[in-house]
Write a structure and sequence with these properties.
Elements lengths: L10 E7 L6 H9 L6 E6 L6 H8 L4 E4 L5 H16 L3 E5 L3 E3 L3 H11 L3 E10 L7 H7 L4 H5 L5 E3 L7 E5 H7 L11 H11 L3 E12 L8 H16 L6 H21 L3 H16 L1 H15 L1
């Protein structure tokens, strides 16, 4: 392919996979059935099942890139996003492996993006796997519970502060301006950080009323380990928040974690205090990566 010529179709769908088999026959055919044709790129994170064999045999139209190791969501998506931008695609559509779309979804997203150019990210409505309600995360971010509430939206595109990256349409120009996902995030947090960076550049994030996708996951109780990992990710996101000066970033990340540790120790919850102390120490261990990420973000914002 001529790397400088804009390809047809205009959209490159990027799916990061790891043990993709439970959803592969819903996800990939849904893109193939799109009214707007799209190129599909699967970045496989060293799946341990038959994902790659199935794609090669049953979906030869998919461009498959096989990583030797599990690079995580952000770094694997960076491979696809970098290639899509280099090849001249107009849009990138990030699609979770456990998600699928309706035939009109891509075309409705693209029409909205071309019409409302102040949006750096557009998302469809995220329904759950059964389609009888919205995905629990989407509901938390937007307050939208079902299709009936979607129909009550008054605008074609509605702005929200954050929606997770399970289904994002991004103009390639926004990727060129903003950069790729920050590799400091191993798993989770990369999408929230990228939204902040897009917003720092003056773009919005919106939901397109006429576009629908399905996200097949369930809300489950989280373990103690998962809880404190999510706390670590939250504080790490604050540490590299592009809206914060360095002193404020330190206050809202490291010092905030230490404050939580101190409160826990003072109230006699020693194990909780130790956990937050561990979070603070982990942030200290990321000091050089945090500073590097902040430098790179600052350079891209110029």
């Amino acid at each position: 392919m001529n790397e400088t010529a804009r390809p047809q179709p205009a959209v490159c769908v990027i799916i990061v996979s790891y043990n993709f088999m439970p959803w592969i026959h819903r996800c990939l055919p849904s893109v193939k059935a799109s009214l707007l044709p799209a190129t599909v790129m699967v970045i496989d994170n060293a799946s341990q099942d038959e994902t790659c064999r199935i794609i090669r045999k049953e979906y030869p139209w998919v461009e498959l890139i096989e990583n030797r190791d599990n690079l995580g969501f952000g770094r694997a998506n960076n491979i696809g996003m970098g290639l899509a931008v280099k090849r001249g695609f107009e849009f990138v559509f990030l699609l979770n492996q456990d998600a699928w779309i309706e035939p009109e979804t891509l075309s409705n997203l693209v029409v909205a993006s071309r019409k409302y150019r102040t949006y750096g990210i557009l998302s469809p409505i995220h329904l759950n796997g059964n389609g009888d309600a919205t995905d629990f995360g989407f509901s938390e971010y937007t307050g939208i519970k079902n299709r009936e509430q979607v129909m009550q939206l008054t605008n074609e595109v509605t702005s929200f502060p954050f929606i997770n990256a399970a289904m994002w349409l991004i103009p390639a120009g926004v990727i060129r301006e903003t950069g790729l996902f920050a590799p400091i995030f191993a798993h989770y947090g990369e999408d929230r950080n990228w939204v902040m960076r897009v917003q720092k550049r003056g773009y919005g994030l919106g939901v397109v009323k006429a576009a629908f996708g399905y996200h097949d996951r369930e809300a489950r109780p989280i373990s103690r380990t998962q809880l404190f990992y999510s706390e670590y990710v939250y504080f790490l996101t604050e540490a590299v928040n592009p809206f914060y000066s360095l002193p404020r970033a330190v206050a809202y990340s490291l010092l905030a974690a230490l404050k939580k540790a101190g409160k826990a120790f003072f109230s006699g919850r020693v194990s909780v205090g130790n956990a937050y102390l561990g979070v603070a120490l982990r942030l200290c261990g990321k000091r050089s990566d945090i500073l590097q990420t902040r430098r790179e973000t600052r350079i891209m914002q110029r």
